[in-house]
Amino acid sequence: MSDDLKRGLEGVLVAESELSYIDGDAGELVYCGYSIEDLAREASYEEVVYLLWHGELPDAEELSDFESWMAGTRSIDDEVLDIVRNLAEADEVPMAALRTVVSALSAYDEDADHDDVTDLDANLRMACRITAKVPTALAAYQRIRNGKEPIEPDEDLDHAENFLYMLNGEVPDEVLAETFDMALVLHADHGLNASTFSAMVTASTLSDLHSAVTSAVGTLAGSLHGGANANVMRMLEEVDESDVGPTEWVENALEEGRRVPGFGHRVYNVKDPRAKILGEKSKSLAEAAGDTKWYDYSVAIEEYITEEKGLAPNVDFYSASTYYQMGIPVDIYTPIFAMSRVAGWIAHVLEQYDDNRLIRPRARYVGPSNLTFPPLEDR
Prior knowledge:
Blueprint: E1 20-23, E2 28-31, E3 34-35, H1 36-42, H2 45-54, H3 60-72, H4 78-89, H5 94-105, H6 120-145, H7 159-168, H8 174-187, H9 194-204, H10 209-220, H11 228-241, H12 246-255, H13 273-289, H14 293-309, H15 315-325, H16 333-354
Antiparallel strand pairs: 1-2, 2-3
Helix pairs in contact: 1-8, 2-16, 3-6, 4-5, 4-6, 5-6, 5-10, 6-7, 6-16, 7-8, 8-13, 8-15, 8-16, 9-10, 9-16, 10-16, 11-15, 13-15
């Protein structure tokens, strides 16, 4: 065994996958052989979920059946809604609330107690329920903590439209629905990122699907992973409230030793392809609304950081202003990330179950040695 230490497992190959491929030098992202640019512009989120879980795009009949099945499983049990209500009224942190709800869904899933945790059919049924119910729970949580009653899901709306409807109480226009659907597609999977890997580690012990997704939610909550998008928007709000322009604000922040969120990536050496697509959407939304302030701030900051630090923006950078212009509250940006990424988490868990080996790395011991155990009275 090699004694080379790879902190953070950087560059270490631990699995083979047919799900997503990233070329960090070329700035390319592929799901199951299809470029993210094509999928973002041509495919719905439901099509991408089907692709990740089945390895191929659905035909018209398969897509219709899948959409109907997803839409028909959106409602959450009254007991789960009670949990959501209690968490919202207790002002629980959104990602912590989501983590609790995902775990609780197991108690009300008829397939959760099946004997073989690797049973593909049972796992696909649970996968569909988890993916469909997370938006319902998240929208209910957001409304309850704002003193409003939850809205029942509408089976006639697609996944993206229905969430915005449950969140805001009105069916979104075509532009908002299309933009949000595209954002869900862009966030659906991204190789062995930290949350996906934590889901795989959990699954590798032959723990169940709900446990694996719960692990992933907990991992995504960190500011170095899913929490970055909310931090980007908070930064833009600080810029807006300051007495200086975005470039000077960033200069001052860097001089103070602050980190500018939304830049750099463990995998990409160039601009994240998802950031390119969301940047275009952010600009379109801004121009349609007649207020390009947030987009202009973002562009100015991107140009400065790229020129001065050689860092390119990642997907979090432009998802911030995109979501903000859609009226989405900042502190549920990361739960929305989870709402999308659950499809990829589940796909990797299914892949792990299909050819499982316990994931068990080792650490190099650097502690003391040859100590003599002292009696209690001598310590």
